Amino acid sequence: MSEVKRVESAAQQALRQSAKKQRLKTIVFYGVCIILGFVFGFADSPFLHQLMDFIATVFTRLFSFIAVPIIALSLITTLAKLGKGSKSGLIFGHTIFYTLLTTIVAACVAALLYEFLAPANLPSEIVGTVDAESMQKTTYFDHILTVIPNNMLQPFVSGNVLSVLLIAAAVGLALAMLEPSDKKTAVENLLGGFQDILFKLIHWILAVLPIGIMGFIAKLIAELEGGMMLGGLATYFGVVIGSNLIQMFIILPLLLLIRGLNPLRIAKGMMPAIAVAIFSKSSAGTLPVTMASAEDNLGVNPKVSRFVLPVCTTINMNGCAAFILITSLYLMQNAGIEITAVTIITWIFIATIAAVGNAGVPMGCYFLTISLLSSMHVPVLLMGIILPVYTVIDMLETGVNVWSDATVANIVNHDLKDRLDDAPEAEAAV
């Protein structure tokens, strides 16, 4: 018996050593690709810039290709189990609570920092150079109407995440309400099979992900080398970036600690997703990596991750809430509108609701802010000055959004781990 134990122990040790070597290779691969990304980005070579832009575009398309069907299938298969006495309703309730909590806190942090730093107005000569006619002006109601589909396939083709979520929720609930039958079981098995196939594709993409990060880094540096005009916007950008950094490094880790979780362990496990989010600037496109990181690195129950993360990707926008609040207050201030305590409190709730309606795509929050302010007759002239440096803000916002998604998923998984049927071990080592 002792000999068998020794053999098993040796086998386990070999597996651990193999896993350690694999992690080391992965770290080296990431490190080399990141260094090359900086080198190629600063290189004065049009060919290298075109090549890196091509690589970044390829990976962006791959993420977009996977993201929409993952969102739909994950939500459908999860909601379909509601009729089986599952815990999906409980998961949904916890998800909404923590999503709204983190988003409102992000808006409050942004409001406090705005009041503390008090960014000054821009000189009139700078404001006057902005071409207002180039700005997109649509009402917030128009934005909401785009969520309501008039065609079953069009949202999937156009990548309208909110519409896809709406369709998936309707189909999933309808499937849950059907009487048990062979047809219903066949449909559920078919959808589950497609979901497994997509997750296999995700793991293949993750294997070559560092190459994509190299392309994203090089492309970003090439864009920033074109120059950024800060000028009188320095304090404004300080408020936007500072509020996001506080949310990322203080608020969300503190929430994890309060719930009895180790933020460093979770950050380590979610690092691939956060890295992709920062450089791709799309939380929806990052979703496949986010789900794989949560399940593979942190042992999050698939019942939780495949329901919570698609929902959070669409409605959990901490960074966007902060941007909407700060930018709206700043634009109103520059337009001569008095900013009172009542105004700030009102915009905390407006920013929270608006952020929930934002799509997790590059620059989604920027255009949503324009739409929201235009519908409320707030001048959007200054958005043209913000645009040249929005790339950096968008990167940080997306990273915060995905980190918040991971925070909510891990907290929900921790809170409900003893109440989920056949739940896998949620505290697996990274």
What would you say this structure looks like, in words?
- By secondary structure, the chain is mainly alpha-helical.
- It is built from 18 helices and no strands.
- It has helices at residues 2-42, 46-79, 88-117, 124-127, 140-145, 154-158, 161-177, 182-207, 209-224, 234-258, 263-280, 283-298, 302-315, 318-334, 341-356, 364-375, 383-386, 390-416.
- Helix 2 packs across helix 13, helix 12 packs antiparallel against helix 13 and helix 13 runs antiparallel to helix 18.
- Keywords: Membrane, Transmembrane, Transmembrane helix, Transport.
Structural class by secondary-structure content: mainly alpha
Uncertain residue segments: 126-137, 227-231, 423-430
Query: Helical stretch count?
Result: 18
Strand content: under 5%
Distance between the termini: 31 Å
State the helical fraction: over 70%
Q: What is the total tally of β strands?
A: 0
Shape: globular
Average pLDDT metric:
79
Major sheet size, sense and barrel closure: none
Cα Rg: 23 Å
Order of helices and strands: HHHHHHHHHHHHHHHHHH
Subcellular location: Membrane
Protein name: Dicarboxylate/amino acid:cation symporter
Organism: Candidatus Avisuccinivibrio stercorigallinarum
Transmembrane segments: 27-48, 54-79, 91-114, 156-176, 197-221, 233-258, 307-332, 339-360, 366-390
Summarize the SSE layout with pairings.
Blueprint: H1 2-42, H2 46-79, H3 88-117, H4 124-127, H5 140-145, H6 154-158, H7 161-177, H8 182-207, H9 209-224, H10 234-258, H11 263-280, H12 283-298, H13 302-315, H14 318-334, H15 341-356, H16 364-375, H17 383-386, H18 390-416
Helix pairs in contact: 1-9, 2-7, 2-8, 2-9, 2-12, 2-13, 3-10, 3-13, 3-14, 3-15, 3-18, 9-11, 10-14, 10-18, 11-12, 11-18, 12-13, 12-18, 13-18, 14-15, 14-16, 14-18
